[in-house]
Specification:
globular; alpha+beta; 13% strand; two-stranded antiparallel ribbon; 196 residues; five-stranded mixed β-sheet
Length: 196
């Protein structure tokens, strides 16, 4: 069904596969891959970023979980040393891995990576004050900002308020934390109402 949907959106697209997966993990990886390809086709061909917003959240969650698992193993084996606290060095590693891999995924799927809509770790300016400032969300797709973090954040955090005040005026900030930190680790913060 996903292959048919992508072909309908983008008739030039060709399904490339080495055959049907033989394991549950292989099937899941193929489904994840096709969902991201469909979302990229919507963005590329129709200019509709909503499917890419959803798939970006899913992909970043997968990347975050994998990076966190690897970072903990590296830290425990002495492979991550930086003079920082355990949380800081693991957090920095996770951030860098997620950003690097997300850029690759967007490039592989030819997702629209233009200066205004789909961005990874780029400055988002707030020019509403005489002295312009900026924030660096880990990713941005349209009017949604994504932040990978080990700590819980709320709309009261300066970083999150800074995202909402940026010129692109996001409607949502998606907080993505490793699932290894417990249930409900990732969540969405809605744009606060004016005056609250």
């Amino acid at each position: 069904m996903l292959v048919e949907q992508i072909s309908a959106i983008d008739p030039k697209w060709k399904f490339q596969s080495l055959g049907s997966p033989t394991t549950w993990e292989g099937v899941q990886n193929q489904l994840d891959d096709l969902r991201l390809q469909r979302a990229a086709a919507f963005a590329r061909v129709k200019g509709d970023l909503r499917p890419l917003q959803v798939e970006t959240m899913r992909e970043m969650q997968r990347l975050t979980d994998r990076a966190y698992e690897k970072a903990v193993r590296l830290y425990q084996s002495g492979g991550l040393k930086d003079g920082l606290s355990k949380e800081q060095v693991i957090g920095r590693y996770v951030d860098n891995e997620v950003r690097r891999n997300l850029r690759k995924r967007y490039k592989n799927y030819q997702a629209k990576m233009d200066a205004n809509q789909v961005r990874v770790n780029r400055r988002e300016y707030d020019t509403s004050k005489p002295e312009a400032s900026y924030r660096l969300p880990d990713a941005r797709v349209g009017d949604v900002a994504y932040d990978v973090t080990l700590s819980r954040k709320t709309v009261k955090d300066p970083q999150i308020r800074g995202f909402f005040n940026a010129d692109f005026r996001p409607q949502l900030v998606v907080i993505i934390r490793p699932r290894q930190l417990g249930s409900g680790s990732s969540y969405i913060i809605n744009k606060p109402e004016v005056g609250k």
